[in-house]
Every structure is written in C-alpha cells, then in structure tokens.
Design goal:
single chain; 256 residues; alpha/beta; D-Maltodextrin-Binding Protein, domain 2; 2 domains; 8-stranded mixed sheet; 3-stranded parallel sheet
Length: 256
C-alpha cells in the first residue's frame, strides 16, 4: 500500500510538472485576460508616449491594441528601454515587445514573429551642416562625432561603419538625435521611418542619405524563444492581418 501510494505521488508530480512545463504564454494571457507589451515610448510614429495625454500612440500601439482586441483581452503597456528590451521579454516582464529590428544577436536569446515592415538606416545632422557632411563616407572621420542610443542596432552599425569617428552613446530615455540638436554630436543614426518623423518635429534636423538608406532591416515582435505555441499564434494573426490590409492601413495612418 505504501509503495502504491509513493508511485501514485510520483506519477501525480510528473503529470503536474509536465502540464506546467507545457503551459504557453498564450494560455496565461487568455486565463488572466491581459496582454502585456513592452515598449519604449520614444519612437515617433511607432511607439511614442505623448506628454500631453500621457498615452502611448503609433503604429506599434495600434498593432498591440488590435491583437488584444482580437484575443478578447485587455492591453497593458510596460515601459522599457532599448537596452533592456530583449531581457524584459526573456525574463517574462512582458509577453511581447513593440517593433524591433531582426538581428542574429537578439535571436540567440529571444524569439521573433514574422516580419511585417522593412526599413533602412539613415544619418541625420543639423541642416546648417549639410554643406560639409553630405554623404555617408564623410562621416567616417576622426573629427566627426556620431550619436547612438544604447541597446539599439544602430550602436553596432556605427562601430562597424564609422570606426574612425567618435562614438557618442546615450542611454534612454535620452535619444541620439538630441545630441545633434544640442551640438554635442555632429551626426546621429536611426531608421529611415524614425528620421522622417523627427525632421518634421525638428526642422533644424536633416537626413544625410535619405535616398540611399543603409543596412536594410526588417521589423518584427520579440517573443519568448522557447514558446512555439505563442509564436505560432502571433504569426497566424500577422498573416491574417496582412491579408486584410491592416498593416498597410496602419502605416498610412501614421505616415510611414
């Protein structure tokens, strides 16, 4: 009888452990009724926290809200920064992120959804400096300082593309373009979609290589790497929304 009871306890433990191990984030979201989304709030047109309303707005915000609505759950935006964007989803601080460029380094530790948007890297400078910094090649100079935000793909791009230039790294919530506006840096790197928004917000800024963006990259959602059920669900949803035109309509809404 004692032996039987012990065997039964072991079997119960194994079943319980297996059930817990196989539980997907998808089940957690549905059961708790909340989708948690990590977002930086410093990416105009994509994820921007409006200081007047204290609300997030942009392409990524509409995307997350639409996904939550289709899942029948509430949405909760979790503030993060680019340096901690990946670690936040790995440590289960949130279930997914807003848009992030696809890189091999990130994919080693986190999962990705299918992509739904593409862009490239551009450099910005003060409009008054365009006469002396008017090409990508002229940036790689010991007399030029290049600003980047820590944790973004542009930090590594600057190191590779401009080894002779002086690198100025800023930590969120500061942004690289602010270094150019203040005169602390000559050039800043960001995505073309971000830059197009920034030059409208700040007329003193101009894009150096607007017609020739470098390092084409794809945007996707960062997800827990070992949760294929959740990844599959998000990918099926993306495919469905692509077919319905949601991404094109949302991009047009925010002028992307």
């Amino acid at each position: 009888m004692i032996l039987f009871r012990n065997v039964l306890l072991v079997i119960t433990f194994i079943i319980s452990f297996s059930t817990t191990a196989l539980c997907s984030v998808l089940d957690e979201i549905v059961q708790n009724g909340v989708l948690k989304v990590g977002t930086t709030g410093d990416f105009p047109g994509w994820s921007f926290k409006n200081p007047e309303t204290n609300e997030y707005e942009g392409f990524d915000i509409d995307l997350a809200k639409k996904l939550a609505t289709d899942m029948g759950v509430e949405i909760e935006f979790v503030a993060t920064d680019w340096k901690n964007l990946v670690s936040g989803v790995v440590s289960s601080k949130y279930h997914m992120t807003s848009s992030a460029s696809i890189t091999a380094q990130r994919a080693i530790v986190a999962g990705y959804s299918d992509s739904y948007f593409g862009t490239g890297t551009v450099a910005m400078t003060l409009t008054k400096n365009l006469n002396k910094i008017n090409s990508w090649d002229l940036i790689n100079n010991a007399n030029i300082s290049v600003a980047v935000t820590l944790g973004t793909v542009f930090e590594n791009e600057a190191k590779k593309s401009f080894p002779d230039a002086k690198l100025v790294s800023v930590e969120a919530p500061a942004r690289e373009y602010q270094e150019v506006l203040s005169g602390r840096a000559d050039v800043s790197l960001t995505s073309k979609v971000d830059a197009l928004k920034l030059i409208n917000l700040y007329p003193d800024l101009s894009i150096i290589n607007l017609d020739e963006p470098k390092n084409a990259k794809l945007f996707a959602i960062l997800l827990p790497r070992d949760d294929q059920e959740w990844i599959n669900f998000v990918n099926h949803w993306i495919a469905d929304q692509k077919n319905k035109g949601f991404f094109d309509q949302t991009a047009e809404k925010f002028g992307l």
